[in-house]
Design goal:
Layout (H helix, E strand, L loop, with lengths): L2 H8 L36 E2 L9 H13 L14 E8 L2 E12 L15 E2 L6 E2 L4 H14 L26 H5 L19 H6 L15 H15 L3 H13 L5 E2 L14 E2 L5 E2 L7 H5 L9 E3 L1 H12 L3 E2 L2 E2 L3 H7 L17 E2 L2 H4 L8 E5 L3 E6 L4 E7 L12 H14 L10 E4 L3 E5 L9 E10 L2 E2 L2 E2 L1 E7 L6 E2 L2 E4 L19 E8 L8 E7 L8 E11 L2 E5 L7 E4 L2 E3 L2
Parallel strand pairs: 1-3
Antiparallel strand pairs: 2-3, 2-15, 3-4, 5-9, 6-9, 7-8, 10-11, 12-13, 13-14, 14-15, 16-26, 16-29, 17-25, 17-28, 18-24, 18-26, 19-20, 21-22, 21-25, 23-24, 26-27
Helix pairs in contact: 1-7, 2-12, 3-6, 3-7
Protein name: CubicO group peptidase, beta-lactamase class C family
GO molecular function, one term: hydrolase activity
Keywords: Hydrolase, Signal
Length: 578
């Protein structure tokens, strides 16, 4: 592929975008409960603003950032600071509503955590440049999909058609799509830095699959190393040049690329003190040992970037592949990036290049089309098309040592802050009852009743329900306030479960359900009802709202929360207008 063709891929003019099908701009601004289809207008360009200015509640964002900042120091439940420093950025409907930095770019002198003298430590700043580690895989994936867009390759191509030596040891049928979705059967990791330079790439291309292609999901660095090689073979250009000319330069991502120049070293967050290989405190060079051994440029790692640049990439994908007059991907291809190709492997939803619906770092923004990726150095990018939001968290959690632990709680906290800043407006009246965590809402004794009670209410449920666990809303009844029995419930509405349910859980639908059930009761009894939201120890959704709680006994109304809620006891629930 020559330079003219490269330019044609990277620099389509905005006139080619005018026929794009996009949803109405601004209709869902500030809303969690109005999920959007399609893409944002291709003309959407990031601008600075405030949470309240775009209809968000600033408090969940402020609370999230306060917690993320606190983790730059040791806390009662952590042995070490979670990371030396962090930069966070939140975008909604094209508006940057939060851009914040805390902690240090450089803090430690060695791998044991000896702190540098205060005057030698360097503060984190909003434009700090981070080694984004495996977020690099997104750039490799986008470059490959640009080749698909222009017809140079196809998803069904066998990799060996373009890289003949890859065909050995049972890999002859592995496709480009299987590399992008991590279903090639290749192993998770390799240790190239332990091999002579001339053997490193050949050793990857000579690997033997651990599973037949297409039969198993395994997140694999060799997949992306191989895809990077394929891109170089097909284009005739080094991967870093392709990424620069096709992605970062057209999008104006001026601080994104491989092997950053020494002139930017003062802005780069330090990573790990490495003894094996003996590299000392790594700063300005890629942390990943394999990418380092390949000269800093590889399909699985090597990219450095900033929160602003990654937010720009996120907005490009929300726009359907275009930004500021330049289209880098077709809408059709972006849609495939947001479509799960791994339905046979529950819990491992994956589009082309992007992970999908991963609650362990997307928290309340999780949904079937929510896309993202993390990086080993402590980075994450979450793109939520349904609310047209982007969450970027960049930390140097491996500074000074990878052994100091995970920053997954911080990833969840930022995404959850965005989810809870978005509004869920009441179905009836001015307020609904909201439970962000474990909570119980209990009625006063109702009756004496003439017989079975009919209970009805509206529920907005956004909770975990996946192979890792379930956070559920249940309704229970009691005649003595001691023994509680579940009330079978039937829900209707977008995404509601079929048939009677003992509990309600799930996410992705982002819509109110109408819920009803019958409570067995003997004539003369008094009955209490309670709405209980319970959490397991795994991941959380945005939470649960309930509204318009009613209980009737024939023609008698015994409970109506819209008329009188004073007889309801709230433990963990709050009345909220949004």
């Amino acid at each position: 592929m020559g330079k003219t063709a490269l330019a044609a891929v990277a620099l389509l003019s905005l006139t080619a975008l005018s026929g794009s099908a996009v949803a109405g701009q601004g209709r869902a601004a500030g809303h969690f409960d109005r999920p959007q289809d399609g893409f944002a207008p291709a003309t959407t360009v990031l601008q600075d603003g405030t949470p309240s200015g775009i209809g968000l509640d600033p408090k969940p964002i402020d609370d999230a950032w306060a917690q993320i900042a606190a983790w730059t120091e040791k806390t009662p439940d952590t042995e070490h600071p979670m990371y030396a420093g962090a930069v966070g950025m939140l975008v909604h409907d094209g508006v940057v509503v939060s851009r914040t930095a805390a902690g240090k770019e450089l803090r430690y002198a060695d791998g044991s955590g000896t702190e540098l003298p205060p005057q030698e430590q360097e503060p984190m700043r909003p434009d700090t440049i981070f080694d984004v580690a495996s977020i690099s895989k997104l750039f490799t994936s986008i470059a490959a999909l640009q080749l698909v867009d222009d017809g140079t390759i196809s998803l069904s191509d066998r990799v060996a058609e373009h890289v003949p030596e890859f065909a050995v040891n049972g890999k002859q049928d592995i496709t480009v799509q299987q590399l992008l979705t991590h279903t090639s059967g290749l192993q998770a990791e390799v240790q190239l830095w332990k091999l002579p330079p001339e053997q490193r790439i050949p050793s990857v291309l000579a690997l033997t699959p651990e599973h037949p292609p297409g039969t198993h999901y395994e997140y694999s660095d060799p997949n992306m190393i191989t895809l990077g090689v394929l891109i170089e073979r097909v284009t005739g250009h080094p991967l870093d040049q392709v990424v620069q000319e096709w992605i970062t330069k057209p999008l104006g991502m001026t601080d994104t690329g491989y092997n950053p120049p020494a002139s930017k070293l003062h802005r780069i967050a330090a990573t790990e003190f490495q003894a094996d290989p003996p590299r000392g405190m790594v700063r300005g060079q890629v942390h990943d040992e394999n990418a380092w051994s390949l000269g800093g440029v590889s399909g699985q790692a090597g990219v450095f970037s900033t929160a602003d640049d990654l937010a720009k990439l996120g907005q490009t994908l929300l726009n359907g592949g275009a930004y500021n007059g330049t289209r880098i991907l077709s809408q059709r291809t972006v849609e495939k990036m947001l479509t799960d190709f791994n339905g046979e492997f529950p819990g491992n939803a994956h589009g082309l290049g992007f992970e999908l619906d991963q609650r362990w770092y997307m928290a309340g923004l999780s949904a079937p089309r929510t896309a993202g990726h993390t990086g080993y150095t402590g980075t994450s990018l979450v793109i939520d098309p349904a609310s047209r939001s982007v969450a970027v968290l960049l930390t140097n959690r491996v500074h000074p040592s990878r052994e100091w632990g995970s920053n997954n709680r911080a990833r969840q906290t930022l995404a959850q802050g965005m989810a809870r800043a978005l509004a869920v407006f009441p179905r009836e009246g001015r307020e609904s009852f909201y439970a962000p965590g474990a909570a119980t809402l209990t009625s006063a004794p109702l009756g004496p009743v003439n017989g079975p009670l009919r209970v009805s209410f509206d529920a907005f449920v956004d909770t975990q329900r996946d192979p890792d666990g379930t956070d559920a809303l249940t309704v229970e009844s009691s005649s003595d306030g001691v023994t509680w029995r579940p009330v079978p419930l039937t829900a209707t509405g977008p995404g509601a479960p079929d048939g009677p349910q003992q509990e309600l859980a799930g996410s992705g639908h982002r819509a109110w359900w109408q819920v009803g059930g019958e409570v067995p009761a003997a004539p003369g009894e008094k009955v209490r009802l309670r709405w209980r939201y319970g959490l397991d120890e795994q991941y959380e959704g945005r939470g649960v709202n309930v509204d318009d709680l009613k209980a009737t006994d024939g023609h008698r109304t015994l409970l109506d929360s819209e008329r009188d809620s004073t007889e309801l006891h709230l433990d963990g629930w709050t009345a909220t207008s949004r």
